[in-house]
Design a protein that fits this description.
The chain is of the alpha+beta class. It has one domain. It is built from four helices and six strands.
Length: about 110
């Protein structure tokens, strides 16, 4: 599934996250691009973006991070953040592999 994610949406998410932390911003990004976020049991895939979009998101995360928290924030991105794919992917879009998301049974 391809989801549009504009610079304005990213900016708003991280402006709202300033009172919390960059990890909260990243979680809000996941919520924005993943349907029925609250019903997810497990994700075996991370949303993917092109290099320019990834760099913009990382820049936003850095801009609200305390200097001493940047290494932790970067490790969180590497381990749990949005992945990069081919440069031919359209900017400001996110690919979510819905087949690799397990929802809670209910």
């Amino acid at each position: 599934m391809i989801v549009k994610l504009s610079k304005d949406q990213i900016d708003t998410i991280f402006e709202n996250a300033k009172s919390t932390n960059p990890i909260e911003g990243m979680i809000e990004l996941f919520k924005t691009v993943t349907p029925n976020w609250e019903e997810i049991d497990q994700m075996n895939h991370f949303p993917q973006v092109n290099k320019k979009t990834a760099e913009y998101i990382i820049g936003k995360m850095k801009s609200i991070s305390k200097k001493e928290d940047i290494p932790k924030m970067m490790m969180t991105w590497v381990n749990n953040g949005f992945g990069c794919i081919k440069e031919n992917m359209e900017e400001w879009t996110v690919y979510v592999d819905m087949d690799k998301i397990k929802y809670k049974k209910g």
